[in-house]
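Dear Dr. H.,

I hope your travels went smoothly. While you were away I took the liberty of generating a structure for the chain from your last submission, since the lab meeting agenda had it listed for discussion. I wanted you to have the full record in hand beforehand rather than looking at slides cold. The sequence, exactly as received, is reproduced here:
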Amino acid sequence: MSFFKDMNLARGVILGSVAGSLVLAWMCWQKSDEVAVLRTKADKQEIEKTVRTLMQTGHKHTQLKKAGQSEGLGAQDDLESYVRRQAAFRNVEIGDVNLVPGNEQRTKGIVDKVYRIKSSDKDRSFDRMRLTNFFYKLEADSGRVKLTELKMEAADKRLKDHETPNDQWTFEAEITSRQRAQ
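The corresponding predicted structure, in token form, is as follows:
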């Protein structure tokens, strides 16, 4: 045992290195057991299934993103500009509209954004074709907007019951967009 009797720095470093390498060898042996267990769990079929699911989810996300962009209805707060854009669309052109917002809580986590739409000039009237194009565009260009109430009256209030009105109408409509509560 003259090794410990004549201990110096070099021998201390050698002894520390041997002890450290034994500790590291023991830790590597434990980790290799974990790696072997993980390799048996993650066989090829399971990995392929996970990759397939990720790819399908990615494709679905891309489709939904494209659909949202094509609707022109990017965010919940953008509903007013969406309605105004539809009112100014070619073959609609009904001009400025007044929008009165409201919210209705349907169920937990679901809110119906409701807007009452009227012409900003209450005496202005429109032909039926413009109005039907407007209501059609509201629903057709967005999967989230539905026309839930419509009131159309003949612009000429002096009509008698037996007279046929000319094709000029005033309107009041209500649209609803069901969304998740924030």
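Two observations you may find useful: Strands lie at 97-107, 110-119, 145-154, 169-180. Residues 2-69 form one domain.

With kind regards,
E. W.
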